[in-house]
Amino acid sequence: MQFVIHKSDLLRELQIVTGVVEKRATLPILANLLLETTENGLQVGASDLEVTIRGTAKAEVQKEGSVTLPAGKLHEITRTLPEAEVTFKLEDRNQVRITCDRTRYRIAGQPRDEFPNFPELDESAGIKLPAKTLNQLIERVVFSITTEDPRYSLNGALFMLKEGYLTLVATDGHRLAYITKKLENVDKSKDLKVIVPRKALTEISKMTDDMTDQDEVVFGQSDKHVFFLVGEHRLTSNVLEGSFPRFENVMPKACETSIVVPTDDLTAAVKRVSLLANDRLGRAVRLGLSSGKLELSSRTEMGEAEETLNLDYDGAEMNIGFNARYLLDFLNVVASPSVRLELNPIREGEQDDQNAGDKPGQLRPEPDGDFNYRYVVMPMHL
Question: For 345-375, what is each residue's pLDDT tens digit?
Fold first, then answer.
């Protein structure tokens, strides 16, 4: 194998595919990238046995072949190379010589036959989705996917396409993010419902970050895999097994108390007040609602913090606690000038009910914008 590629083209490709590589791979070969040369250029692939990605970069191929090289080291080397043409040459015993200007490296690789095979999928039934819209939907729910819950089905987001609406739902048991949007140029006869792993969604979000809705992502399911075709890249993932929770039962049907708060003001206040919140208690912040104001506070053995926001409210007084990080996760991506906080207050006589404080709060963008976006958060006992 021998090829020549410009440093910038190689670096761009490595930045896309290395996100799939596990830092603590269960098999040593999974810490490597697969490099293959064909008449179409250089193909670079990565796999963690559940998620795979493969892309093609422009290169002058002088001799076809394949080898695997350590992903981290190859990326590190490429970043430091001068802006020039880079030559790769496979030598005996899977040694690869890398030459760029006056810089030379020789790296020990491993043969291609030790690398896992990429899934062979039927992509003919793929559905074309607008890239920027897909990116925005993923961004607004992916943070709610659990990283700790042992329930396998919660390690991903519910991905639904029905009657022209694309819907994503994610939950970790303490909060739930729901977003849906009607797509104009999608085949309304195609329905799909599948749980897509967090890692796959995170990588697709990165790949579509600079795209517009003029760009398309082809998405589909083939057997026990889902696939995303993004430009010259194909990402596949195992489908998560199990049943996704009945999220409709969690989302409040109606909320008695509703306030509108400027997003930037609320974000800044939560950040400041949570500086003295207790990490062991989930950085709980108390929200106190009374006539004309919303008071945020936290109190620990270290001290206390308070901040008051003026708002249009003349209802009953109430207090509720929320995890500050959960609030900030939503506020950082909502992208609306204000947010609507909806609550169901504890009624008289419910104070002694152990479950009375478990009525979730709901946040939404204000105005709604192009999406139906709802974020449901369970309160914290303070």
Answer: 654 444 444 444 468 899 999 998 889 999 9
Q: What is the pLDDT of residues 284-317, one digit of tens each?
A: 899 999 999 999 999 888 899 999 999 999 988 8
3-state secondary structure the chain: CEEEEEHHHHHHHHHHHHHHCCCCCCCHHHHEEEEEEECCEEEEEEECCCEEEEEEECCEEEECEEEEEEHHHHHHHHHHCCCCEEEEEECHHHEEEEEECCEEEEEECECHHHCCCCCCCCCCCCEEEEHHHHHHHHHCCHHHCCCCCCCHHHHEEEEEEECCEEEEEEECCCEEEEEEEECCCCCCCCCEEEEEEHHHHHHHHHHCCCCCCCCEEEEEEECCEEEEEECCEEEEEECCCCCCCCHHHCCCCCCCEEEEEEHHHHHHHHHHHHHHCCHHHCCEEEEEEECCEEEEEEEECCEEEEEEEECCCCCCCEEEEEEHHHHHHHHCCCCCCEEEEEECCCCCCCCCCCCHHHCCEEEEEECCCCCEEEEEECCECC
- Give the pLDDT confidence score for residue 165 in this predicted structure: 93
The CATH classification of domain 2-114, taken from the options 3.40.50.1980, 1.10.287.70, 3.60.10.10, 3.10.150.10:
3.10.150.10
